[in-house]
């Protein structure tokens, strides 16, 4: 079968699962949008990570007005026509400009979305999302990063009869996050946070939680940048634990943070208009072999699949109790680390690629029968 994938961007780090798909499906082509000024840089990065696939990865000049959903691909219709694919896989939200074009193309298409808030989004987003139901109703298949996203697609108009599967399209590369041994426990619990420093990410809840643990028994490292940094730093000054702000970091720096800690915390908040879509950093921690404590925001509980490691968002007392459990029982840390690493295999690129190819088979069989 001939498949054309329309990806999200030309960064090699964003295309781990697509490299796996291309290696498994020789008739598959990957199109990636890129600003003209970045084409050579993108080519170099892709050659470094997937030199064997260079003849099936096509960079398409594109420009973005207001983020990914407003990306305009130049000449994409003609590019697709040249390949005459049996199926088009559109990695975009259903209101994205590229997704809005898909129903007018001859081949059937699959829509691949990450968003898990559609109908309850702020008004200006809902206006931009006009046409979502049309795309969902005409799609021959649908993919979401997680179960909460899939529910949101159905709520927004995806027919229950449409074949679906789950796949996070921007998977962490397991080669960048190899499992590391748990550091010795010397009475100080090493806690890590990695992500944006904005109120929605709940770092303030984490700092409050560690302040409720006996003084000088927790070492918290916070990696990330954002507008909330100064306020968090002020809060940390009143805390009775050691807290370090590390600034931003690349994938290797993130892995080093994961390897340093005993436990990773992802304390995202949740409101009617905000929740965690997936949780890449949680999976990175699981790949590294670390217990991961998460809030109940969005997809996070499904990622860890362990109710004992989930607290109610914003509830610092529940988070304190979970951290105390980690601190008081080294066996609990070790056992949880092993189970989370086993759970991380769910997001192995080959596992996710298999889910996609099985969906494509299902869609094409249904098309042949219709």
Summarize the structure.
The protein has helices spanning 16-24, 39-50, 76-83, 97-101, 123-128, 132-138, 147-155, 203-211, 229-237, 251-260, 280-288, 300-304, 316-328, 330-344, 349-369; strands at residues 3-6, 28-34, 57-64, 71-73, 87-91, 109-113, 141-144, 164-166, 189-194, 218-223, 242-247, 263-266, 292-295, 310-311.
Report on the architecture of this protein.
- It is a single chain.
- Helix content is about 40%, strand content about 20%.
- It has about 375 residues and is of the alpha/beta class.
- It folds into 2 domains: about 5-170, Glycogen Phosphorylase B (Rossmann fold, 3-Layer(aba) Sandwich), CATH 3.40.50.2000; about 175-345, 3-Layer(aba) Sandwich (Rossmann fold).
- Strands 4-3-2-1-5-6-7-8 form an 8-stranded mixed β-sheet, with helices on both faces. It has a 6-stranded parallel β-sheet with strand order 11-10-9-12-13-14, with helices on both faces.
- α8 packs across α13 (about 315-330).
- The longest helix is centred in the C-terminal third of the chain and has 21 residues, at about 350-370.
- The mean pLDDT is about 95.
> Which word captures the global form?
elongated
CATH class of the largest domain: Alpha Beta
Q: Per CATH, which architecture of the largest domain?
A: 3-Layer(aba) Sandwich
Beta-strand content bin: 15-25%
> What's the arrangement of strands in the largest beta sheet?
4-3-2-1-5-6-7-8
Low-confidence stretches: none
Distance between the termini: 17 Å
CATH superfamily of the largest domain: Glycogen Phosphorylase B
* Main β-sheet description: 8 strands, mixed
Order of helices and strands: EHEHEEHEHEHHEHEEHEHEHEHEHEHHH
Let me know the average pLDDT.
Answer: 93
CATH topology value of the largest domain: Rossmann fold
Identify the quaternary structure here: single chain
């Amino acid at each position: 079968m001939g498949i054309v994938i329309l990806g999200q961007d030309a960064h090699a780090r964003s295309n781990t699962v697509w490299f796996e798909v291309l290696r498994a499906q020789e008739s598959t082509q990957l199109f990636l949008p890129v600003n003209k000024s970045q084409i050579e840089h993108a080519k170099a990065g892709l050659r470094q990570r997937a030199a064997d696939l260079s003849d099936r990865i096509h960079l398409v000049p594109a420009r973005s007005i207001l983020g990914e959903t407003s990306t305009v691909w130049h000449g994409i219709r003609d590019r697709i026509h040249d390949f005459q694919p049996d199926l088009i896989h559109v990695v975009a939200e259903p209101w994205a400009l590229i997704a809005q074009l898909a129903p007018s193309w001859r081949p059937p298409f699959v829509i691949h979305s990450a968003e898990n808030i559609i109908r309850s989004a702020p008004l200006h987003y809902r206006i931009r999302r006009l046409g979502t139901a049309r795309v969902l109703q005409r799609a021959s298949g649908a993919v979401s990063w997680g179960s909460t996203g899939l529910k949101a697609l159905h709520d927004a108009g995806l027919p229950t009869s449409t074949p679906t599967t789950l796949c996070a399209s921007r998977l962490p590369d397991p080669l960048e996050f190899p499992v590391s041994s748990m550091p010795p426990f010397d009475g100080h619990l090493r806690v890590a946070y990695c992500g944006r420093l904005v109120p929605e990410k709940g770092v303030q809840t984490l700092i409050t939680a560690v302040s409720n643990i006996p003084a000088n028994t927790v070492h918290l490292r916070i990696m990330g940048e954002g507008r909330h940094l100064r306020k968090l730093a002020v809060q940390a000054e009143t805390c009775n634990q050691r807290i370090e702000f590390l600034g931003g970091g690349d994938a290797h720096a993130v892995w080093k943070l994961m390897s340093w800690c005993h436990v990773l915390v992802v304390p995202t908040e949740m409101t009617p208009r905000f929740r965690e879509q997936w949780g890449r950093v949680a999976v990175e921690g699981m790949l590294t072999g670390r217990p991961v404590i998460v809030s109940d925001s969005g997809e996070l509980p499904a990622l860890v699949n362990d109710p004992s490691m989930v607290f109610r968002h914003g509830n610092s007392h529940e988070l304190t109790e979970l951290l105390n459990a980690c601190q008081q029982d080294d066996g609990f840390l070790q056992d949880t680390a092993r189970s989370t690493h086993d759970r991380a295999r769910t997001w192995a690129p080959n596992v996710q690629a298999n889910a996609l190819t099985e969906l494509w088979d299902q869609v094409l069989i249904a098309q042949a029968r219709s």
